[in-house]
Amino acid sequence: MKRILQVCLVLGTLTLEATAQSPTATRTSPLKTGIAQFDAEKLDQAKATLLPLAKAGDADAMLYLGRIAIEQSDGDSAVSWIEQAIRKNDRSSTYYQWLGSAYSLKVISANPLARMSLATSLKHAMERAVELDSTNIEARINLLQFYLQAPAMMGGGVDKAREQAAAIMARDPYQGRLQNASIAENQGDTLDAEVLLRDARATFPDSSAPATRLAIHYFNAKLYDDAFRVLENRLRRSPNDAAALYQLGRVGAVSGAKLDRAQWALDRFLQMPHKRGTPSIASAHWRMGMILEAKGDRAKARAEYETAVRLDPKLAGAQASLDKLKQGVSLG
Q1: Rounded to the nearest 5 degrees, what angle is found at the Cα of 103, between the Cα atoms of 101 and 109?
Q2: Quick one: DSSP state of residue 280?
Q3: Alpha helices, DSSP H only, in 20-136?
Q4: Reported pTM
Q5: For range 39-65, the mean pLDDT
Q6: Environment class of residue 240 by beta-carbon count within 10 Å: exposed (0-12), middle (13-18) or buried (19+)?
Q7: At CB < 8 A and 24+ separation, what contacts does 29-38 make?
Q8: CA distance 66 to 200
Q9: How far, CA to CA in Å, does 183 sit from each of 57, 149, 166, 208?
Q10: DSSP structure class, residue 172
């Protein structure tokens, strides 16, 4: 169940960046300022700007305070703020979409008894988002992933997921291909998933996601040479593709191959302005630490792990790498 909600949360948090701003976001300068601060990942500043607006009854400010709470892993506050926004406007598909993400966060940390009730609320929010706006592709993606991952007793089912994939494909062939690939991967049909991702990459050569998704597909299958090849091809086409740079570093860090190239990729990634929707800075420092440790530079590796943990204390892999390195040093 935890995996189900992590998928929904990630999708709800990351896929909407191009369209998330409400049409009313232009009505006041303070609201625009707060949203701009949020987009720049200046969350504390955004919160300070938006809080007075929310207290004055601005529903969009409430939504963004909920989104800030999601990013700060505060599920209770996220649900509270977004439910307040919905009480102001219960016809917004976007509000219900983010309410689903907020419930996803709550379920992750809930006890097993509470998860069933929260999952019901999560499912309702996702379905309501699609009901209110059938063209909301991001909401359909979230709902598809819920259906795909949730057990039948919680309302899941691959047939329901395929229905959403067909609806997405009719409206957005780009996302349709990617979501059909997700279904194929979920069902263990790795060949079909590869075909779909290769087709998406060929059909949309200027887009990052098909190439990086294909590379991740190969990575998961431990076909590291294929993953490197796809990412290098992508970077030849788009040298500043942040997702491809990160994934190249990740493949090198995990496989232990092409360490110099992987280090170069992460260096470049870390020098670029970070954009929401790309891998986290903390994760990049963790992978950099893995590369440096593999190259024998334990001191610099430790510094990278410590930076990763400081930036994201919940990044379990970074903490594990740091603990292991410390243990190795103490035993040595």
Answers
A1: 110
A2: P
A3: 29-39, 43-55, 59-71, 75-88, 93-109, 112-132
A4: 0.85
A5: 96
A6: exposed
A7: 31/58, 31/60, 31/61, 34/61, 34/64, 35/64, 38/64, 38/67, 38/68
A8: 34
A9: 41, 10, 12, 20
A10: -
How would you class 308 by CB atoms within 10 Å of its CB: exposed for 0-12, middle for 13-18, buried for 19 or more? buried
The token duo for 170 is 């009719």
Residue by residue, DSSP assigns 177-228 as HHHHHHHHHHTT-HHHHHHHHHHHHHH-TT-HHHHHHHHHHHHHTT-HHHHH
Q: Residue 288 and residue 282: Cα distance in Å, rounded?
A: 10
Q: Which two tokens stand for residue 288?
A: 């950099």
Site of tokens 């505060």: 74
Tens digits of per-residue pLDDT, 126-139? 999 999 999 999 99
**N residues, the chain:** 332
Q: How far apart are CA 242 and CA 14, in angstroms?
A: 15
- pLDDT for the residue 329: 58
pLDDT tops 70 at residue 157: yes
CA distances in angstroms from 92 to 21, 33, 135, 185, listed in the order given: 12, 22, 13, 32
d(CA 219, CA 212): 10
CA angle 13, 185, 3 (to 5 degrees): 45
Q: Can you tell me the distance from the alpha carbon of 113 to that of 301, in angstroms, rounded to the nearest whole number?
A: 41
Q: Minimal CA–CA distance to 105: which of 148, 67, 154?
A: 67
Q: Using CB atoms within 10 Å of the CB of residue 174, give its burial: 0 to 12 exposed, 13 to 18 middle, 19+ buried.
A: middle
